[in-house]
């Protein structure tokens, strides 16, 4: 049976060239980059080259990149680190109601420490209002954390506009760019962000590695204690093999971004065209235009998401839902709840399709035809 993977927003297959880089470093460059002997110096050179490549990808300075274990750690480091460093100036933080749980659960943790969190609403396209950010700002606001692009529905947030607004306020600005990095062209100077989180496994790199951009001069407290790695900001011997592999994935993503985005747009339109030709009723969750190029979230009226996911999986097609299915019950997606309300039918019938390097056009056609077949079978 042909298997089709349309869940690249969850994670991506590692690019073959990235695998080769990682394998070479694991075998041939095992020195500790903090050591002064030749083995250590070789590893330090690889580390420095990777940091240079990754810094350039977002317009950052070399020393503004901190390597982490992934996007979750980067989010935690930025939000908790900034909150604790700035708490003498206030304890108010602004975020959105559709953030990834790496942000939302971190904010909930800080609430227990006495911080006051404002969770901004979104419209039916999953976008926050800059005016809402402006209205929520207070004298004691120390941090604003808004994701760049939503992982479930793909909605892009007005990051540059918020960054411009905060030029007139003392609050620091963090954006979780885990889902956007590699498909959106990001320039941290134009965005006016102080922190930006990224994870390698979303761009065909290995799992367990990411980075946090920290603008020069931005205050935050470190979370790990030990050695003096990452300029004393993140202790622990650097994961050289994964960092080198990450840099290779970044290099490939930067070189192919336009080509890939064009393909993803074609896949989106192609899938919806097949569904229309088969008479399948569906609605787009989010915006058809102001969206991440590789994410498409569709609502299929009259269907059940759990049954759809199971039947698609049996047909060899991997997609996902924002809902958590456990023991026959469904916990609605917090993103869709924020967009449509707790009573909306879309909470029970929405599926996310996310495209990547392994996909091709005939797969998209097959997915559309299979969905049509499954819906007709389940309904009748």
Q: Work out the radius of gyration.
A: 21 Å
Question: How far do the termini sit from each other?
Answer: 25 Å
At the first level of CATH, the class of the largest domain is: Alpha Beta
Structural classification: alpha/beta
Unreliable stretches: 325-329
* Count of the separate structural domains: 2
Mean pLDDT, nearest integer? 95
How are helices and strands ordered from N to C? Answer: EHHEHEHEHEHEHEEHHEEHEEEHEH
Written account of the structure:
With 380 residues, the protein is α/β, with parallel strands linked by helices. It folds into two domains: 4-12 and 257-379, Aspartate Aminotransferase, domain 1 (Alpha-Beta Complex), CATH 3.90.1150.10; 16-252, Type I PLP-dependent aspartate aminotransferase-like (Major domain) (Aspartate Aminotransferase, domain 2), CATH 3.40.640. Helices cover 42% and strands 15% of the residues. The protein contains twelve helices and 14 strands. Strands 2-8-7-6-5-3-4 form a seven-stranded mixed sheet, sandwiched between helices. Strand 12 (324-326) and strand 13 (329-331) form a beta hairpin. Helix 1 runs antiparallel to helix 9, helix 2 (38-58) packs parallel to helix 9 and helix 10 crosses helix 12 (361-379). The longest helix is centred in the last third of the chain and has 38 residues, at 240-277. The protein is globular and about 65 Å long. The model is unreliable at 325-329 (pLDDT under 50). GO terms for molecular function: cysteine desulfurase activity; iron-sulfur cluster binding; metal ion binding. It catalyses: (sulfur carrier)-H + L-cysteine = (sulfur carrier)-SH + L-alanine. It is an enzyme of class 2 (transferase).
